[in-house]
Write a structure and sequence with these properties.
- The complex is a heterodimer of chains A (326) and B (324).
- Chain A has 326 residues and is of the alpha/beta class.
- Chain A contains twelve helices and eight strands.
- In chain A, the strands form two sheets. Chain A has a six-stranded parallel beta sheet, with helices on both faces. Chain A has a two-stranded antiparallel ribbon with strand order 5-6.
- In chain A, helix 9 links the parallel strand 7 and strand 8.
- A seven-stranded mixed beta sheet of chain B has the order 3-2-4-5-7-6-12, with helices on both faces. In chain B, strands 9-11-10-13-14 form a five-stranded mixed beta sheet, sandwiched between helices.
- Chain B is α/β, with parallel strands linked by helices and 324 residues long.
- In chain B, helix 9 links the parallel strand 13 and strand 14.
- Chain B is globular, with a radius of gyration of 19 Å.
- In chain B, helix 1 runs parallel beside helix 6.
- The model of chain B has no long low-confidence stretch (mean pLDDT 97).
- Classes of the chains: A alpha/beta (326), B alpha/beta (324).
- The structure holds thiamine diphosphate (TPP).
- Thiamine diphosphate binds next to strand 3 and strand 5 of chain A.
Chain lengths: 326, 324
């Protein structure tokens, strides 16, 4: 598996930026889990730990103006799209300084200024919405592309199929990115998906579907870049299945057991971050000092976000009944 | 003034708005040159073309999602659901997405989507093509809901619906499509949240929606012959609902009947009755009455008449109320 990392040639600066983003997302999410443990987050949070390579690799393939829609497990995507860590953390803690004034919380993040058109807490519901955004791009001829992230579980929902059909019929500039992390809460993908690769489901609708190692940031980047080009050319949607594995609980409040300790340990060996780090150190020959400085910086940014959020006031009571209507 | 049908009025509203604003896109099924299930979209495909009049597959849930996507991307979408009964398939898009998005994103997105759908009562098509489900949507904060009963209101309210930045459920009525009424030739808009007093009266207030406005009007004329003066109010929009006009009328008459074709239990009549209790309790001289659809699946053919309210049931209810 590690071999594929070596095949992609990218500017060193860009690869270091991938590494910076991945370490930031990891640290950010670890701090979120820690804050939850301390009782500082009401509600819950769905960490994207172990899935950083997908958010970073895929979003690197689009511009700031292109749109991204994601799920409740979407902190990483928003960070990768250029979201301000402070305002994301503040939103997760339901603070007034958060992106959505503290009324959305961990599962409802949005900033149209950076083309981030929201995370959604109803499984798969955002897939047709993302396709509608892509349709708007097509009608306006603005050349923009929409990325839609969702899980393996979401690929079993009816709207996934309806959208795939309509997106293909209307050739909308949409890239559907399925993060197959092996589970929908506790249900293993083998028990829920009738085929080995979710990617093949695209065939039924006449557009390309490709499965890729989701723990390989460079492969995710490369395959998304091709899908984005195809969409921009006007050739329609692509389905990309990024295979990874979730070794964190589904959400911070999920108590049930879904795998053995041994399995978890085994899965952790697929961690995309040390793997990419090894690639950078061994193949690209980035010095240990440089990597450490990136890691330190990522930690600082994450910690500052936590500081900012903790010092921010909660969502203002006067705001609670605002923003219902225009 | 010229007279046109309810269906033509809706068609005109959409045509005029689409000419004015190139951002408006229509989504639905059978909306191409076929002109929509009930012909409401006649000639729109010819005028605006397939890019803006998107005749799509039978995928109601995704179609509504596409509409929301267009809306949050800065366009305006009108989604047609062929019968209101099928809105069951788009409830998530309407109730969990369109209605709440602006709120949970802290005002960062607006969702100007109109879901047009006919409450299909009285075609005789039975239990799955005859329902009026407006109460479900009224139970969902974040939506605007219109339910016009005349061509004039249909056109003016629809234009307002299309221009506003909030999601709107626009409920039409199959049996009203062919009904004619006066509609100004010049541009006009009708406001949401403003009830229409269809007929003034002093003994009893009748609040009616959609098709029941006509039935209630006939009932009122009949009752007048017996010396009973009924005031008839058409709320026109259910969200926002013009509580004030209803309460003021009940203060005057002391009696209230609410009539709708939808099932009685937890229907809008329950809500409107409660509004009267809260706002005009001291003025009520009799209990609030509902003349509504029976709480049972709707049978097919002419048997349906047994479960729907009508002019005679309203008259009976008013007489009861006056006697109590
Ligand atoms: C329509 C719907 N059904 C069920 C849920 C509850 N739920 C939340 S996340 C989840 C699992 C989804 O799994 P998957 O799509 O694989 O994404 P993952 O959580 O693994 O990222 C479920 C069942 C929901 N939010 N929405």
């Amino acid at each position: 598996m590690t071999q594929s990392l070596k095949t992609t040639v990218l500017a060193q600066a860009q690869m270091l930026d991938f590494y910076r983003q991945m370490t930031l997302i990891r640290h950010f999410e670890e701090r979120v889990v820690e804050l939850f443990g301390k009782g500082l987050i009401s509600g819950s949070t769905h960490p994207c730990i172990a899935q950083e390579a997908i958010a970073v690799g895929a979003i690197a393939a689009v511009s700031r103006e292109d749109q991204v829609l994601a799920t409740y497990r979407g902190h990483g995507q928003m960070l990768a799209k250029g979201g301000d860590p402070k305002k994301i953390m503040a939103e997760i803690l339901c603070r007034g300084t958060g992106y959505c004034k503290g009324k959305g919380g961990s599962m409802h993040l949005c900033d149209p200024e950076i083309g981030f058109l929201g995370t959604n807490a109803i499984v798969a519901a955002h897939i047709p919405i993302a396709a509608g955004v892509a349709l708007a791009n097509k009608i306006r001829g603005n050349g923009l592309v929409t990325l839609c992230f969702f899980g393996d579980g979401a690929s079993n929902e009816g709207v996934f199929y309806e959208t795939a059909n309509m997106a293909a019929l209307w050739r909308v500039p949409l890239v559907m990115i399925c993060e197959n992390n092996g589970f929908a809460i506790s249900v293993p993908v083998e028990k829920a998906v009738s085929v080995k690769d979710i990617a093949v489901r695209a065939q039924a609708f006449g557009f390309p579907g490709e499965a890729v190692d989701g723990n390989d940031v460079l492969q995710v980047y490369e395959i998304t870049r091709k899908a984005v080009e195809r969409a921009r050319r006007g050739d329609g949607p692509t389905l990309i299945e990024c295979k990874t594995v979730r070794w964190e609980r589904h959400s911070a409040i999920s108590a049930g057991k879904y795998a053995s300790r041994e399995e978890m340990k085994r899965w952790q060996k697929t961690d995309p971050i040390p793997r990419f780090r090894a690639h950078l150190a061994d193949t690209v020959r980035v010095s240990g000092a440089q990597l450490e400085s990136i890691e330190r910086e990522a930690r600082e940014v994450g910690d500052q976000a936590v500081e900012f959020a903790l010092q921010s006031p909660p969502a203002a009571e006067s705001e609670l009944a605002e923003d219902i209507f225009a | 003034m010229r007279q046109i049908t309810y269906s033509q009025a809706i068609n005109e509203a959409i045509r005029e708005e689409m000419r004015r604003d190139p951002n408006i896109v229509l989504l639905g099924q059978d909306i191409g040159s076929y002109g929509g299930t009930f012909g409401v979209y006649r000639d729109l495909f010819e005028e605006f073309g397939e890019e803006r009049v998107r005749d799509g597959p039978l995928s109601e849930a995704a179609t509504a999602g596409f509409g929301i996507g267009l809306a949050i991307a800065g366009m305006r979408a009108i989604v047609e659901i062929e019968f209101m009964d099928f809105s069951t398939l788009v409830l998530d898009a309407i109730v969990n997405q369109a209605a709440k998005m602006r709120y949970f994103y802290g005002g960062k997105l607006k969702v100007p989507v109109v879901i047009r759908t006919p409450a299909a009562t009285k075609l005789g098509l039975g239990a799955q093509h005859s329902q009026s489900l407006e109460a479900w949507f009224m139970h969902s904060p974040g939506l605007r809901i219109a339910m016009p009963s005349t061509p004039r209101d249909a056109k003016g309210l629809l234009k307002t619906a299309i221009r506003q930045d909030d999601p709107v459920v626009f409920i039409e009525h199959v049996r009203l499509y062919a009904s004619k009424g006066e509609v100004p030739e010049d541009e006009y808009l009708e406001p949401f949240g403003k009830a229409r007093i269809v007929r003034e009266g002093s003994d009893v207030t009748v609040v009616a929606v959609a098709m029941m406005v006509q039935e209630a009007m006939q009932a009122a004329e009949e009752l007048q012959k017996e010396g009973i003066s009924a005031e008839l109010i058409d709320p026109r929009t259910l969200a926002p609902l013009d509580r004030e006009t209803i309460v003021r009328s009940v203060e005057k008459t002391g009696r209230l009947i609410v009539t709708h074709e939808a099932y009685q239990t937890a229907g809008i009549g329950a809500e409107i009755g409660q509004i009267a209790q809260e706002g005009a309790f001291d003025y009520l001289v009799a209990p609030v009455k509902r003349v509504a659809g029976k709480d049972q699946p709707i049978p097919c053919g002419t048997l349906q008449e047994k479960v729907f309210p009508n002019r005679d049931r309203i008259i009976e209810a008013v007489r009861d109320l006056m006697a109590s």
